[in-house]
């Protein structure tokens, strides 16, 4: 049966080669599945768009209910950075509480005005450079104009704060002689000021500016010594740091050239607020506009 017989060794050899090829294909498929997604920087370049997480809250992100048009510091800065990249800005609506999860899930590329807390830094990445600064301030009734916090440390000064907030903790230690009243929410704290139940309320100053516009009374001040805090821009944590590092240098550029402050001032004007009456978000201007 020569010419037509198949040696047993040939069969085994063919089987081994087939198994090897199948193994190589399976390994390649497994590697493809395990391979990480393209970096954020590469995705932005490939898609030609910058996806910006947007959580509606003045003055960070605002939305006109009739036209759907977006505004606010975060959105304006996002558009400017998209322009720097020569790509299209795309808004992806989210909520502050879901921002880090949205970054992890690759739903958007950046979330502006996201404070870089130690807890968030466990799951997301942040540029070293701050986006801008804000300070703990007061919305205070007419007739009071303290330049320093210790001028408010008196038994006849009624202070309203939101229970458990950073201002609550700070003023409990800073103003032990004042009468501090605590309320469950920012809105209830503001309502107490509007009703004259307290002489002043304390939040971080951009929020106070919005509240002052709402109640149409009092003035926003930053007493000394300033209690400064920074905000940042959250990005997805990944091995390639190109996007994070470029973003950091770019937001620093816009800060030092005054672009970020200009966006804030423009938003204030859109809300019929004179920027000269509102503390700046540029730390170097504090004391000049307060």
Structural summary, described in words:
The protein is about 40% helix and about 15% strand. With about 290 residues, the chain is of the alpha/beta class. The protein folds into 2 domains: about 40-135 and about 230-275, 3-Layer(aba) Sandwich (D-Maltodextrin-Binding Protein, domain 2), CATH 3.40.190.10; about 135-225, D-Maltodextrin-Binding Protein, domain 2, CATH 3.40.190.10.
Strand and helix layout:
Blueprint: H1 8-34, H2 40-47, E1 49-54, E2 62-63, E3 70-71, H3 73-85, E4 88-93, H4 99-104, E5 111-112, H5 118-121, E6 132-135, E7 138-140, E8 158-162, H6 166-174, E9 179-183, H7 186-194, E10 200-201, H8 205-215, E11 219-221, E12 228-231, E13 233-234, H9 242-256, H10 259-270
Parallel strand pairs: 1-4, 8-9, 8-10
Antiparallel strand pairs: 2-3, 5-13, 6-12, 7-10, 7-11
CATH superfamily of the largest domain: Periplasmic binding protein-like II
Shape: elongated
What would you say the CATH architecture of the largest domain is? Answer: 3-Layer(aba) Sandwich
Named CATH topology of the largest domain: D-Maltodextrin-Binding Protein, domain 2
Mean pLDDT: 87
* Count of individual beta strands: 13
Proportion of residues in extended strands: 15-25%
N-to-C span: 105 Å
Largest sheet: 5 strands, mixed
Q: Helical percent range?
A: 25-40%
CATH C-level of the largest domain: Alpha Beta
**Derived structural class:** alpha/beta
**Order of H and E elements:** HHEEEHEHEHEEEHEHEHEEEHH
Extract low-pLDDT stretches. 1-6, 11-17, 19-35
């Amino acid at each position: 049966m020569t010419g037509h017989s198949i040696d047993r060794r040939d069969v085994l050899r063919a089987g081994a080669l087939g198994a090897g090829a199948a193994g190589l294909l399976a390994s390649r498929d497994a590697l493809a599945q395990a391979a990480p997604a393209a970096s954020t920087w590469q995705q932005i370049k490939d898609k030609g768009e910058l996806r910006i997480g947007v959580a509606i809250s003045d003055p960070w992100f605002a939305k006109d209910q009739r036209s759907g048009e977006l505004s606010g510091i975060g959105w304006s800065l996002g558009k400017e950075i998209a322009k720097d990249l020569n790509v299209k800005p795309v808004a992806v609506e989210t909520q502050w509480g879901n921002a880090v999860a949205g970054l992890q899930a690759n739903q958007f590329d950046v979330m502006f005005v996201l404070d870089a807390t130690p807890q968030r830094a466990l799951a997301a990445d942040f540029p070293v450079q701050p986006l801008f600064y804000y300070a703990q301030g007061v919305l205070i009734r007419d007739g009071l104009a303290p330049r320093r916090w210790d001028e408010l440390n008196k038994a006849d000064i009624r202070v309203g704060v939101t229970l458990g907030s950073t201002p609550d903790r700070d003023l409990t230690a800073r103003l032990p002689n004042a009468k501090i009243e605590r309320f469950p929410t920012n809105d209830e704290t503001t309502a107490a000021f509007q009703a004259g139940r307290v002489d002043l309320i304390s939040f971080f100053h951009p929020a106070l500016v919005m509240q002052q516009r709402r109640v149409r009374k009092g003035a926003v001040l930053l007493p000394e010594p300033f209690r400064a805090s920074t905000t940042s821009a959250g990005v997805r944590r990944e091995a390639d740091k190109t996007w994070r590092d470029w973003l950091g240098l770019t937001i620093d550029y816009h800060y030092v050239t005054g672009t970020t402050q200009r966006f804030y001032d423009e938003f204030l004007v859109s809300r019929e607020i004179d920027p000269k009456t509102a503390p700046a978000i540029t730390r170097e201007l504090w004391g000049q506009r307060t």
